[in-house]
Please model this.
Amino acid sequence: MAAPVSMRAFLAYFLRLGALGFGGPIALAGRMQRDLVDERGWIEKRDYDEGLALAQLSPGPLAAQLAIYLGWIRGRVLGAALVSLAFIGPSFVMVLALSALYVRFGSLPWMLGAFYGIGAAVVALIAKSAYGLLKKSLKSDRLLWAIAIANALATIVTAAELIVLVVAGGIVTVIARRPAPPASATSLLPLPALFVTGLKGPASVATLGKVLTYFASAGLFVFGSGLAIVPFLHGGVVEQNGWLTERQFLDAVAVAMITPGPVVITVAFIGHLVAGPAGALLAAIGVFVPCFVIVVVVAPHYRRLAGRPHIKAFVDGVTAGAVGAIAGAVVVLGRKAILDVPTALIALVSLVLVTQVKKLPEPLLIAGAGVVGILIQRVRG
Model:
């Protein structure tokens, strides 16, 4: 039996976690288990395990989806809604502030130097995460490894995540694991220019609508780690729509790495660069609302559905494809971030540090890379 707790105290916990929680989705999920299950007893172990499994089996950023499910356990739909706001809100506000500064001062020499070093470090962090996800998600399953490799190669060649190929991986896995058969739309209201102005000036209503629909589709293909959205976003934001340059996209990923809360909050930074605060809000809504809806719709029936083999097989295949795309994105982003010998050394040293130094705070590594980048740019004059 879970220990009694007021909704106010429960929300305060997630507000703190969203404001101070670093380390990515796995680290945040681990903190929820330690704090809410082991120490406080506010959540039963069975409920936590089921929430974690749901977050892994369905599209949506893992840590945010787990938090929403635990909110549903304590307060049903209202609890899920309030927890999602408490957990996502702090990082959204931080990213909104950083993106505003970036739009205003992004061309300053010191900031250019900082992101010169940070971009290389980010590639190392993604490489380390991709390696961990490959081991954790695929294990020794040859089919899943084949799907992941195919998606990695496709991502490298096309510089984008091919959703058709990711979904095909899920379908192939379902077929391969199949047992023997037994016998109205609303229009957006005009907004003041200040709230829709990004790097390229005020955004049109059509652009705002495109931001919302694009990031909503992105949210439906984020399985497990928030980093799974990176290759998908790269293809749409840089290659397809041309909203950001390669450097600006890497900067957006870096901002997500140095702020607490879910990594997928990088969409708010991108949305702000495209269409100001309104773009940031619409991008966040697009990514997080689908996973919220999935939780509140599926949660009441989850225990009955989770055990169906074909559902798990499909998700395993899609996850393998998404993880493969992350691995491919390391190469794609590395081509753009590792420009010369100094950035190659920054990336190499960063990779060594994150793999060899236990509990190294990622924001500290990012900050260090930024300082090194500034110093290099100053030496070059």
